[in-house]
Here is the input.
Amino acid sequence: MEKMSSRTPHTVIKNPRITTTLRYMKQFAIEGAKNLDIRFLVEQICKELEPGDYSSEILACCYWVCKNVRYMRDIDRVELLKTSQRTLDTRNGDCDDIATLLGSMLISCGNRVRFTIDDMNGGAVPNYTHVFTQVFIPGQNKWVTMDPVAGRESEKMHKRTKYHKFINI
Here is the structure.
């Protein structure tokens, strides 16, 4: 891992493996969940909601990320990662940055979260190209996908998935 200059908000992973990227994402999500700026943002997003309306908190956080963080691809064949705070500061990121920020926000308001990596190419060997956040809904005893990158296309996109893995945070 290499930090870029002070003007750039990224961490560069040389010769990235998906396991390395996920390890940093998990670390950044946990650190971000404890970040008081992120907690304050979540409190502001949810301040008009009824107390105990946890489903609305989840949806409000996801909606905020959808509306306020722009998807931007990494440099070709270079893995750039941002902490949740850096993604919040720049309001830009690729799927791993956005999933990490959303994961931090959801953990910050008391949710169980995991990352899911997908291979939507359907080859004989998995080639994981997309990552998103899932949150556990206790009353329904199920995991729900929160994917601001795919947005309205989530259902179609995830139906094409041949391989996926789950990474608990």
